[in-house]
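Annual report, structural modelling task.

Input specification for the iron/sulfur cluster complex:
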Amino acid sequence: MSIKITLEKCIGCGSCVSVCPGSLIEVSGGKAAIYDPKRCWGCASCVKECPVQAIALYLGEDIGGLGGKLTVRQENTLLYWTVLLPSGEIKTIITDRQKSNQY
Ligand code: SF4
Ligand code: SF4
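The model returned the following structure:
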């Protein structure tokens, strides 16, 4: 399991660096990079923090993710979890950060 960073979108803010519990991401030359993807355990913290949706979490077929890519957009307390499947199908789940105990 790992993430993919779209460099064209990355603004080099460093938010992903500060939240990764494994310290796997660094910003160099104004762009983020994951330098040891095999150690990523897919917690999605960086995906949630990125303000420009530059980070996608790869959802492998081995975990039932069908090879999709997960991104998260935040509006106030709401998180819009979007999965883009290889077929082009898009699925979105909306959760509220203030009601996280419900999920
Ligand atoms: S998904 Fe979690 S472990 Fe993987 S790079 Fe992002 S913050 Fe780090
Ligand atoms: S949080 Fe997003 S925009 Fe900021 S450095 Fe990381 S990938 Fe780039």
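The domain at 3-102 is CATH 3.30.70.20 (Alpha-Beta Plaits).
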